[in-house]
Amino acid sequence: MKLKIKIHTQILIALVAGVAAGLVLQERAVHVKIVGDMFIRLLKMIIIPLITASMVSGVISIGNVRALGRIGLRTFAYYLATTLIAVTIGLVLVNALRPGDGFQMPAADEAVRSIAEHEPPTVTSILNDIVPDNIVNAAAGSKFLSIIFFSLVLGVAISLTGEKARPLADFFNALNAVMLKITGWIMCLAPIGVFALMAYVVGTLGWGVIVHLGRYMATVLLGLTLHACVILPLLLLVFARYSPLRFFRHMFTAVATAFSTASSAATLPVTMDCLEVNAGVSNRVTSFVIPLGATVNMDGTALYEAVAAMFIAQAYAAEMTVGHQLIIMLTATLASIGAAAIPSAGLVTMVIVLHAVRLPAEGIAVIFAVDRILDMFRTAVNVWGDACGAAVIARFEGETFVKG
Ligand code: ASP
Predict the structure, then answer these.
(1) What are phi and psi of 141, to 5 degrees?
(2) In CA terms, which of 117, 157, 260, 281 is 20 to 30 Å from 168?
């Protein structure tokens, strides 16, 4: 317990010291980037075996297909409901504050044009991503949805095979435990990684642009704050009966890692470790809900996409009717599901939203400059949303929390 508190404090110090170092070093902070990159690489290194082992062992411990269906349905309902709430908060705020009114659109440069031309994922391509035709290729291409689907099938088959498949069940349980062990080691390096990532981001940020886009950023941040500090804690309190403050303390390392890496996927091992070791949520629920959540449940991204699309519309002085806004709501939800859990993925899938309401994809030019900083905040909210979801589902599954 003592060590846990120490790690929290270390990470908090690392965050603050990283910001300070970035301000002092400015562009020279690019030299510490390699340290942050190594930290992210270490986390990514274990994602594929971790997702596979945790999904398979999770499905086996859930026991039967019926219980699996029940958890699956609850997880899906929770994810969809919270994402829709997040989008609604974003839309209400952007309509009330209208940050885009009178905003001067800059010309799109090369980098932005390449994003605008990027083929956004379609419903068909997302469906194709779920069922792999070659699981080795899927793993090599980090197609998490494919890996999750295959692991689900594998877990159910091992369960139904019974005694004969016992060695396989033991194997995946052991692999899961070993991966969490490695996660624990990597987490000891988190303060160094977080420091380097923060120094790099702060040092290389264009501060002038931030001031220019201040109102837009404030709208996104206000929405994210409302969702993370009011809605999700309420759900946690009412449905999971878990003290939000205590739960946040347990999850702090994961949220800080999400913030500094801007990747839910890279944070996944840390999220699982914090939930199981600190927050006392069972491996049975964590190992099913979290890999799925990191891939498809992105409350922060959905909220951000809705605000950003409306901001662009306001900047172009394009009127968005209630019908348009309903389309934005739907497509922002879809785009957040389709977004990969990596930095800037939300910016790319936003092309879907812009296309749907006939706004020019070049509109991304306006918000491109401040994407990284907003990405950090929305990723932190994405991971916090996944974690709260795990606690809620665990309570629905009859779990009680000794640490809650
Ligand atoms: N970076 C986000 C995540 O990993 C996705 C996004 O770009 O919104 O959760």
Answers:
(1) -90, 10
(2) 281
Residue 343 beta carbon below 6 angstroms from any ligand 1 atom: yes
Residue 119: how many CB atoms within 10 A of its CB?
8
The CATH number assigned to the domain with range 7-32+70-107+191-396 reads: 1.10.3860.10
pLDDT single digits (tens) 317-337:
888 999 999 999 999 999 898
Which amino acid would we find at residue 334? L
What is the b/e burial string over 197-213, where b = at least 16 CB atoms within 10 angstroms of the residue's CB? bbbbbbbbbeeebeebb
Q: Would you tell me how many other CB atoms lie within 10 Å of the CB of residue 347? A: 23
Sequence-distant (≥ 6) Cβ neighbours of residue 158 within 8 angstroms: 56, 59, 60, 165, 168, 169, 172
How many Å apart are CA 361 and CA 355, to the nearest integer? 7
* 168 CB neighbour count, 10 Å cutoff: 16
Please indicate whether residue 220, judged by its CB atom, sits closer than 6 Å to ligand 1.
no
Residues 2-11, buried b or exposed e (16+ Cβ, 10 A)? eeeeebbebb
Cα dihedral 376→380→385→386 (10° resolution) = 100
- For 274-308, write each residue's pLDDT tens digit: 999 999 999 999 999 999 999 899 999 999 999 99
Q: From the alpha carbon of 336, which atom of ligand 1 is closest?
A: 8
Q: Are 321 and 280 contacting, i.e. CB atoms less than 8 angstroms apart?
A: no
Would the pTM of this model clear 0.85, i.e. be above it?
yes
DSSP 216: H
Rounded Cα distance between 328 and 330, Å, is 5
SS3 18: helix
**Is the per-residue pLDDT at 402 higher than 80?**
no
Whether ligand 1 lies within 6 angstroms of the CB of 50 is answered as no
Phi then psi dihedrals of residue 253, to 5 deg = -60, -40
Residue 19 phi/psi, 5-degree rounding, is -60, -45
User: Where do the structural domains in the chain lie, given as residue ranges?
Assistant: 7-32+70-107+191-396
The number of helix segments (H) and strand segments (E) in the chain equals 21, 0
Q: Please tell me if the CB atom of residue 371 comes closer than 6 angstroms to any atom of ligand 1.
A: no
Ligand 1 atom at minimal distance to the Cα of residue 345? 7
d(CA 83, CA 88): 9
Test site for ligand 1: of 336, 372, 379, most ligand atoms within 8 A of the Cβ:
379
